[in-house]
Amino acid sequence: MVIGIPRALLYYNFFPWWKVFLETLGNEVVVSSKTNKAILDAGVKNSVDEACLPVKVMFGHILDLKDKGVDYIFIPRIVSVEKNRYLCAKFLGLPDLVKAMLDDIPPIIELEINHYKGERAFDREIMRFGRIFTRNIRQIKEAREKADRVQGEYERLLKEMTANDALRILFGAHVSPEKKQYGMKIGLIGHSYDIYDEYINMSIIEKLNDMDCQVITADMLTEKQIAQGASHIKKDMFWTYGRQLLGSGLYFLDEQNVDGVILVTAFGCGPDSLIKEIIEREYKRRNTLPLLCLTIDEQSGEAGLQTRLEAFVDLLRLKEAVGR
Description:
By secondary structure, the chain is an alpha/beta fold. The protein contains 14 helices and ten strands.
């Protein structure tokens, strides 16, 4: 069968696992087109007004897959990706929201990703999901082992490069991008779907590279480094990716190993608004590292972003020159 995977939300985190598992069990995987104006407009038109930008984009990608003629659309129900922590509620109820809001789309198949229940429960869920395609238990186990290996390789690549480059190496060119020496380092923090979707963030990574700035993302940090930054907050952050944003932002502030930090958040995201406030306050309190906060929405303009990035990089260069 032909299964469509939307190029949105946690696609940038788990696509290699999803693709390899499904293909190993004999399915053809079709990915939605890269985000464009038509996809964004369709998502805005067909989702609820209260939804954040990434969810609206997700709706647009689902409608794009409908036009590609897939048999099913894969929408995981992601509750928890690590023990004792959760994801934003939009991931928990996404399959239900899609079914309620979108008519005349291909049937949805879902995999519940919930590590909070424990590994045995997740093992059983993978077997249940695999039985949709085959009754051969050994084949399901082999598909999972292969998917785990490829996902591990992907996560290793993320320590060295951006998600889009890593995906190209795994499933495209198989050639590592040319390593270039940059004049400055900038920490870029934000959810994967905000910093890697080149349409909604208006190619922010490419723009920074063109300004002679190397980009360091939260994915390039170790769990120990994230934990170091997050430890500044007395209460444990129970959102997995919120903790990653917070921990990476405060780690950069601790170590001063970048010239500046850019925080990208999506308009309408409740957890992001809280995390942004905490990071901003701590940066203002210490006043040792420049911080630029960017909020993206469906009305964001490229000219305004370009101006703000250029001004921020000019500030960093001036700061460096004065410090010599």
